[in-house]
Design a protein that fits this description.
Elements (H helix, E strand, L loop, with lengths): L23 E6 L11 E6 L4 E6 L7 H9 L10 E9 L5 H19 L6 E8 L6 H5 L2 H7 L5 H7 L8 E9 L2 E10 L12 E6 L5 H12 L17 E6 L11 H20 L7 E9 L2 H13 L1 H8 L6 H9 L10 E4 L2 E5 L2 E2 L5 H8 L3 E7 L5 E8 L3 H8 L4
Parallel strand pairs: 4-5, 8-9, 10-14
Antiparallel strand pairs: 1-2, 2-4, 3-9, 6-7, 7-8, 10-15, 11-12, 11-14, 12-13
Length: 410
């Protein structure tokens, strides 16, 4: 697959300067799993005493790595030992049957031996082509190099090594002052296509030096996930490999359980990464926010928002800069949510295009079309039947998406 041009929605300034997280080190290698001439394996080593949380795809065909991580989540084999995360790109090790399970077993055993951590503390992720046997020996053969290259400042390289059709590496961070002490959070993600909510959809790794037990961290990550990674869509397709793993090393000594400032900071990191995935949507040229209010409840609001965000007709209209608000009406109607046609209102940015179930008085097609030429677009839908609300984020659907996916395996 040819190198892809940088997304026009990529963050200005490139990859951000992320803080080092005490107790976490990274290394990368070029194992040649699928890609040639680039790094494709990332290893993260996490110090003893860390707590772990994770959220994973609910796909019925989820990968061997996902199943293994789910089995291990919440288990501390030896409190005196650390943890590891190993990720490869180019091959998802999904739909590979017993061979896939055996590959995960071999990889985790080798990482356990190389880093002197329990095998039950080793988490793996694989991303890329589905249905191809994983050449795991190529990965484990690099463990000596990876162990020797571990560095606290290697997170930027780690973000690049996990990419597939991504056009830019994704990172975000936050620092928060709690009781006079500074707590740091840093996260990386990959994702570009096969993005739709069912946990989240992509690979995400978040590290913090905060002190928080595993149960509290799990509750926090699961809750924040719903309004971040579970509120984005590129193409309505849920991956077999989606994983979010969060590690809290406790190195700061600051207990953040129940702390609102830490929750706000973590939410900001997760939302930033989620938005970057949408901005790197395959072939995307526009970043779109869809905000629904006035629904019977929040669940209905999300149904409407996702119906709009996943509609090929809505997304292609946005790509063509066509102010075809009738397609929003269509998406509301098909969503299955409670709606009243005669109370429906729609706005593009600050431009009210429809209200009370009818085209707005003074509506200007010229003004609406001019707004659709923007790279960032907000579509608001008022259902007028209750107090429920939800916001989701998506991108347009272009010829570029077809081109990328038509030759994905070539």
């Amino acid at each position: 697959m040819a190198d892809l041009d940088l997304s026009p929605l990529a963050p200005a300034g490139g990859f951000p300067d992320l803080p080092e997280i005490d107790g976490v080190r990274f290394a990368v290698a070029a194992a040649g799993v699928k890609y040639q001439g680039r790094t494709d394996v990332m290893l993260a080593e996490i110090a003893p005493g860390a707590s772990v949380a994770g959220v994973f795809t609910r796909s019925a065909t989820r990968s061997a790595s996902v199943l293994d991580c789910q089995d291990k989540l919440g288990q501390i084999v030896d409190a005196t030992k650390g943890f590891a995360i190993l990720v490869n790109s180019g091959n998802s090790n999904a739909f590979t049957g017993r061979n896939g399970t055996a590959s995960v077993e071999r990889i985790t055993a080798k990482v356990s031996e190389a880093l002197d951590v329990p095998q039950g503390h080793v988490y793996t992720s694989s991303t890329g082509v589905i249905g191809e046997p994983l050449p795991d020996a190529k990965i484990t053969d690099m463990l000596g190099q990876l162990r020797g290259d571990l560095s606290a400042d290697g997170i930027a390289d780690a973000a690049s090594a996990i990419m597939t059709t991504d056009t830019f590496p994704k990172g975000a961070s936050a620092e928060v002052l709690i009781d006079g002490s500074r707590v740091k959070i840093a996260g990386i993600a990959k994702g570009s296509g096969m993005i739709a909510p069912d946990m989240a959809t992509m690979l995400v790794y978040i590290f913090t030096d905060a002190k928080i037990d595993g149960h509290a961290l799990q509750a926090l990550v699961s809750g924040l996930n719903e309004g971040t990674f579970n509120a984005i869509t590129v193409d309505s397709d849920t991956s077999t490999s989606d994983s979010l793993i969060a590690m809290a090393t406790g190195a700061s000594g600051v207990d953040v359980a129940g702390n609102g400032a830490f929750e706000t900071a973590l939410h900001g990191v997760m939302l930033d990464l989620a938005h970057q995935v949408v901005r790197d949507g395959e072939g995307a040229t526009k970043f779109v926010e869809i905000a629904v209010s006035g629904a019977a409840d929040d669940a209905d609001a999300k149904r409407v928002a996702m119906a709009c965000a996943n509609s090929p007709l809505v997304k292609t209209a946005i790509a063509g800069e066509d102010a075809n608000w009738g397609r929003i009406v269509m998406a509301v109607g098909k969503s299955g949510a409670q709606a009243d046609r005669d109370r429906l209102g729609i706005a593009f940015g600050d431009i009210v295009v429809a209200e009370n179930g009818w085209r707005a008085e003074g509506y200007s097609e010229e003004a609406a079309s001019a707004y659709m030429a923007n790279q960032e677009i907000k579509i608001s839908v008022q259902l007028g039947v209750g107090d429920g609300s939800a916001t989701v984020w998506t991108c347009d659907l272009t010829y570029g998406y077809i081109s990328i996916n038509a030759d994905y395996r070539s």
